[in-house]
Structure formats: structure tokens, C-alpha cells
Design goal:
By secondary structure, the chain is α+β, with helices and mostly antiparallel strands. Helix content is 45%, strand content 17%. Helix 1 packs across helix 3, helix 2 crosses helix 3 and helix 8 packs antiparallel against helix 9. The radius of gyration is 26 Å and the shape is elongated.
Length: 340
């Protein structure tokens, strides 16, 4: 375990390298940081850090740069995450408050993350199976035709036109609407499907054929989870600013980012909006992306994670600022979905 002084030296190396993109020497550290020790002591600490694999010397007589192991320790030992400024918080709120539906929320979120972090932003669409039922509506379109509408906790709307076996009365439609909402309101969709299948047995026998058709259409809507593989990406042009940060050509990286399965792997499982996951270099589960880091967090209404959002960028990134941005956007997106 490193002592506090060596941790301070490592922290200074990371901060300087991120800001300057140049290997860091002992003289520069003493000049820029109040380490409270002599250059000789800093050189000894840097030698120890290099021996332990936290920093490396890219060229003879050059300064040192952090390794993946060094970045990992830096992130793990962060004592604080840079708070967002009042203008940044206001910008997030203003940007997301104008969203009209869940698609708009996702599109605005990916643009916002890319702009705030100047990295590649990735936002997974909310997973339908993790959503809850906010409302079920039945609308009479014709004597033998209904429109069944499902509204979820994420603001997603699913509609199905239902051809009935015969004319249905307004009384039956109103009664069935009330029964559907009583059975499913606030339920996660898989549980709501179970409630729907049980509901058919509670209505009068002569109404069951009509009710069965409506329930069948709603079960299909509840189970139509097309969002599982839907991911939106923004800010890929930002990678051009970091061409020298990647071990190999940037092309394999861009190709990997075009695969949605790859993007879902990068984001990982949804965690709570306060639990930010950081994977650095070799920790990223794809060979083409071992020169990158991924910062991700789950998002959803009331802190209940429905999906994940995050950024991909070079390992030489502003981790405190990026973590703060990802965490804040995840929180605000969750609120936007809850209020939608």
C-alpha cells in the first residue's frame, strides 16, 4: 500500500498529464504542486511508483506517465468528485426539461453528455421490462374496434388497435378500463402480464371473449421490449482530438463503437444513479478498446435503474469531472422520466 506522500505524487502526475498531454518530470511537480518535499524526494517517490507499475517512462530521459494501474488507484482513491457549477446544473435542467417523450429524453441526454465531457456519449434506451405501468387507456374507435394504450413509468407509449369479436358497450369499456388499471398500476411489466392473465377469470362469463382479445393485445404490448438492444451514441467526432492517445489506429475503435452489442457490453449492468462504474484500459472487455476508459451509471425514475448511460474516452481523461458529469446527467434523466 502506498503512503500518503506517494499517493500525492501519483495524483499530481495524473492531473498534470491529463492537462498537458506531456510526460511529467520531478521538477515540474515541485513547481506546480505544494508537495512539501524536495525534488530529490519526489524523484525517489517516482522511482518507487514506477517500480510498482503505477507510472511508466515512455522514452529515455523523458518524464513519467500514468499506467492503467496508476489511473485505477487514482480513481479508487478520489477523495472528492468535482462538483458541477451552477451554470452547468442550470444547463442540464434547461436542456432536459424541454423533452417531450422518452425518445427525446434519450436524444437530449446523449448530446448533453457529449458536450459536457467532450467524449463519446452512450445512452441505452430504458428497458421496458424494468418499467412500471403508469396508465392503461381504452378508446372506442368503432363499435367493434378499440385502441389500447399502455403508458409506462418512463413515458413510453405503446398502442394496439384491437378488433373485437362484436360490438362493445361503453359500460363494458369503462368497466374493463377500471379493472385493467386496478390490476396493473405501479406493477413492473412482467408482473403486470401475470395480473392481466388472471384478470380474464374475474369478469362475467359473457364478457370474457371480448376481454380476452383486449388482454391479449396488452400482453403483446407489455412484452414488446424492443429497447433491449437500442443504444444511442453521440460525440464520436470528439475522438479526433485524442488521436495520439490510442495505441493503434482510431479506425478499429470507431468500428467497435458502431456495434450496439459492443456498446451494451461497455455500459454493463445498470446500477443506481449514485453508483458510477469506471473501467480503465485493460479492464474494458474488448481488445479494440483497451486504450480507452468507460465511465457509466444507471438511470431511472426515483433512483430505480432502468438502463445505463456513460462515456467512452481515452484513459487520459479528467476522471473527477467526467464522473461528476455522468452522475449528474443520470440523476437529471431519472427525474425527467419521473416527471414525464
Amino acid at each position: 500500500m502506498l503512503d500518503e506522500r506517494k499517493l500525492a505524487v501519483l495524483r499530481a502526475i495524473v492531473e498534470d498529464y491529463v492537462s498537458t498531454r506531456e510526460p511529467v518530470g520531478s521538477k515540474a511537480l515541485v513547481e506546480r504542486h505544494s508537495l512539501g518535499v524536495s525534488p530529490a524526494t519526489v524523484r525517489n517517490d517516482m522511482a518507487a511508483l514506477e517500480e510498482d507499475g503505477f507510472i511508466a517512462q515512455p522514452h529515455t530521459s523523458a518524464g513519467r506517465v500514468p499506467t492503467d494501474k496508476g489511473y485505477r488507484l487514482f480513481v479508487d482513491r478520489l477523495t472528492s468528485v468535482r462538483p458541477l457549477s451552477v451554470p452547468e446544473r442550470r444547463a442540464i435542467t434547461t436542456f432536459l426539461d424541454g423533452a417531450v417523450d422518452v425518445d427525446d429524453v434519450v436524444q437530449r441526454s446523449v448530446r448533453l453528455l457529449a458536450q459536457m465531457t467532450r467524449q463519446v456519449a452512450i445512452v441505452q434506451y430504458p428497458t421496458l421490462t424494468r418499467s412500471t405501468v403508469r396508465h392503461v387507456e381504452l378508446v372506442t374507435m368503432a363499435p367493434s374496434r378499440l385502441l389500447a394504450v399502455l403508458i409506462t413509468s418512463t413515458g413510453r407509449v405503446e398502442q394496439r388497435v384491437v378488433e373485437m369479436p362484436g360490438p362493445v358497450s361503453d359500460v363494458l369499456v369503462a368497466d374493463l378500463r377500471a379493472r385493467l388499471n386496478t390490476a396493473t398500476l405501479g406493477q413492473r411489466l412482467p408482473e403486470a402480464v401475470e395480473r392481466l392473465t388472471e384478470l380474464a377469470e374475474t369478469v362475467p362469463v359473457h364478457d370474457r371473449p371480448a376481454v380476452a382479445v383486449v388482454i391479449s393485445a396488452l400482453v403483446e404490448a407489455f412484452s414488446d421490449d424492443r429497447s433491449d438492444e437500442r443504444v444511442l451514441v453521440g460525440g464520436t467526432a470528439n475522438l479526433a482530438r485524442f488521436g495520439d492517445d490510442f495505441d493503434r489506429s482510431i479506425r478499429p475503435l470507431l468500428e467497435a463503437l458502431e456495434e450496439h452489442v459492443v456498446l451494451l457490453q461497455l455500459l454493463g449492468e445498470a446500477t443506481g444513479p449514485d453508483a458510477v462504474t469506471v473501467r480503465i484500459g485493460s479492464e474494458v472487455p474488448l481488445r479494440e478498446l483497451t486504450s480507452t476508459s468507460v465511465v457509466a451509471s444507471g438511470y431511472g425514475p426515483d433512483g430505480d435503474p432502468l438502463a445505463t448511460l456513460g462515456i467512452v474516452g481515452p484513459t487520459r481523461m479528467d476522471y473527477p469531472g467526467t464522473i461528476a458529469a455522468v452522475r449528474a446527467v443520470a440523476r437529471y434523466v431519472g427525474r425527467a422520466l419521473a416527471d414525464g
